[in-house]
């Protein structure tokens, strides 16, 4: 089916008080697994390409975007295409031409004032092109190239009053918030601050986004959605499934050389992970 827009999927999920899962795509097999999982679960999903994935592909957005778009169009599930954790304004500006309906512009490393200014510029650029823009306030740690950040350290979490001002001053369509999760966790042990999620949901008029959801247990995700979290970003869980399947295959069959043998297993393992997250939504 044709690509669906992230903003439409997020609005529908928010109105129904459901979660909408967004999965990071690094390879063609990731995109195929998201589509297969969405078909299996009978649910919509977002395929997201991060700035780090673009760097991995030699700084070129086009090939992976084209692959993800083709996979989404060939699927019977409603799928959207989102550009994730964009810090480079140059990359942001490629989003429209490459078919992305939404972008997460990440200026969270900047001071509050600089974050507002850079994000407001990105939102203005997006509005002129019909692109839905998500941004981050607070610090969700564990990003590549950053020293580890304690998700429970003072000053890391998103303040509801500051979030309300930030949304008003930038005009963002959705807000990524720091509520206890952290990126790149391989164990599902994160404890979220559900009181803070409720306070943020009451304070800001736009949908909330949970980053680092791979490290969040099912019950915590369910409670977060009930408290008002809408877009649930998942990346590492797919990579864990992929790598575990490849490692198992290559350990059991040390003479194997055909990548189709182990990538079939990796893709199926990711599909199971996607399906489980989508059923949770
Ligand atoms: O933006 C992407 C997500 O926050 C993914 O985080 O890899 O920890 O699941 P994760
Ligand atoms: Zn993230």
Summed up:
By secondary structure, this protein is an alpha/beta fold. It has eleven helices and eight strands. It has one domain (6-280): Aldolase class I (TIM Barrel), CATH 3.20.20.
How many beta strands in the DSSP annotation?
Answer: 8
Which descriptor suits the 3D outline?
Answer: globular
Question: What class do helices, strands and sheet pairing give?
Answer: alpha/beta
Give the radius of gyration.
18 Å
How many distinct helices? 11
Instruction: Report the sheet with the most strands, covering strand number, pairing sense and barrel closure.
Output: 8 strands, parallel, barrel
Any idea what the CATH superfamily is called? Aldolase class I
Kindly provide the name of the CATH class: Alpha Beta
Query: How large a portion of the residues is in β-strands, by DSSP E?
Result: 5-15%
How are helices and strands ordered from N to C?
Answer: HEHEHHEHEHEHEHEHEHH
Strands of the largest sheet, in order across it?
A: 1-2-3-4-5-6-7-8
Number of domains: 1
Mean pLDDT, to the nearest integer, reads: 96
Helix content: 40-55%
Q: What's the CATH topology label?
A: TIM Barrel
Extract low-pLDDT stretches.
none
**Ligands bound, unique:** glyceraldehyde-3-phosphate, zinc ion
* CATH level-two architecture: Alpha-Beta Barrel
Terminal CA distance reads 22 Å
């Amino acid at each position: 089916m044709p690509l669906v827009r992230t903003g439409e999927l997020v609005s529908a999920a928010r109105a129904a008080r459901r979660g909408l899962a967004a999965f990071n795509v690094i390879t063609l097999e990731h995109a195929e697994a998201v589509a297969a999982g969405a078909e299996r679960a009978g649910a919509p999903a977002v395929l997201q390409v991060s700035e780090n994935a673009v760097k991995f592909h030699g700084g070129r957005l086009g090939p992976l975007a084209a692959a993800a778009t083709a996979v989404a169009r060939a699927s019977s599930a409603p799928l959207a295409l989102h550009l994730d954790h964009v810090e480079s304004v140059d990359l942001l500006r490629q989003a429209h031409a490459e078919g992305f309906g939404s972008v997460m512009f990440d200026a969270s490393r900047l001071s509050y004032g600089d974050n507002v200014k850079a994000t407001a510029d990105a939102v203005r650029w997006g509005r002129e092109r019909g692109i839905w823009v998500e941004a981050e306030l607070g610090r969700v740690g564990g990003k590549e190239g950053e020293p580890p950040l304690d998700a429970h350290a003072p000053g890391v979490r998103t303040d509801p009053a500051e979030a309300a001002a930030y949304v008003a001053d930038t005009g963002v369509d959705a807000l990524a918030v720091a509520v206890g999760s952290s990126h790149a966790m391989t164990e599902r042990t994160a404890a979220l601050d559900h009181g803070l999620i409720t306070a943020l949901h009451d304070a800001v008029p736009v949908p909330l986004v949970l980053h680092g959801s791979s490290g969040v247990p099912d019950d915590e995700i369910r409670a977060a959605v009930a408290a008002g979290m809408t877009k649930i970003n998942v990346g590492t869980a797919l990579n864990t499934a992929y790598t575990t399947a490849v490692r198992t295959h290559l350990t059991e069959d040390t003479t194997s050389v055909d990548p189709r043998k182990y990538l079939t297993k990796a893709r199926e393992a990711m599909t199971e992970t996607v399906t489980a997250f989508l059923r949770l939504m």
